[in-house]
């Protein structure tokens, strides 16, 4: 069973084309589901039949590109519920559906690692990985969007200094960065945070 969190944001919900974006420290309640994306996923054979859902934990454990640290810590939080968020969609432009897997921590749902798997015949190839926490990846209108909380030297986990939202696009061989938006958070009276004006850097 896959464990995913319902995101509650310190600075508001992120709306995108495909499911949840990790809210970092503000993530609270948990439910078990697999997040749908833009359309019903195609089969790995390209026949258009629904893609058979894979076991994301087995996929990660068999992947040599996943660090030994992530594998070692990937254990059930409760019962058989693993802290893994998996979604299906089109992000590499292939005939078959791609798989985006986010590994979270049990204690606080912190994004430990994000991975994208592309169908290649009867198997899946890791074509993207980011293991610099906190990190969370999702598919948005055919692009890969990676969100990373930014912490200053004196920041507490609950109150990061800002957030980077990085957009990647598949060029036929790999993902390349297309856009990067950095938002600075400013403290408000009630102890929460609100975003300062964002800055965008396009490549």
From TrEMBL:
Protein name: Lipoprotein CseA
Source species, domain of life: Bacteria
Region (Disordered), start-end ranges: 20-50
Listed Low complexity bias regions: 34-50
């Amino acid at each position: 069973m896959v464990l995913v969190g319902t995101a509650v944001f310190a600075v508001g919900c992120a709306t995108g084309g495909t499911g949840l974006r990790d809210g970092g420290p503000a993530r609270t309640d948990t439910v078990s589901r697999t997040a749908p994306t833009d359309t019903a996923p195609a089969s790995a054979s390209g026949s258009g039949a629904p893609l058979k859902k894979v076991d994301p934990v087995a996929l990660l454990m068999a992947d040599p590109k996943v660090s030994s640290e992530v594998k070692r810590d990937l254990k059930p939080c409760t019962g058989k519920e693993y802290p893994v968020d998996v979604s299906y969609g089109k992000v590499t432009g292939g005939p078959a559906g791609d798989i985006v897997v986010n590994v979270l921590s049990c204690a606080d749902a912190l994004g430990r690692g994000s991975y994208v798997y592309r169908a290649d015949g009867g198997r899946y190839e890791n074509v993207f990985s980011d293991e610099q926490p906190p990190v969370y990846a999702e598919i948005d209108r055919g692009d890969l969007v990676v969100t990373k909380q930014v912490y200053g030297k004196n920041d507490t986990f609950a109150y990061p200094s800002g957030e980077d939202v990085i957009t990647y696009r598949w060029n036929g061989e790999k993902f390349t960065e297309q856009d990067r938006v950095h938002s600075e958070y400013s403290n408000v009276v009630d102890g929460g945070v609100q975003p300062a004006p964002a800055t965008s850097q396009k490549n």
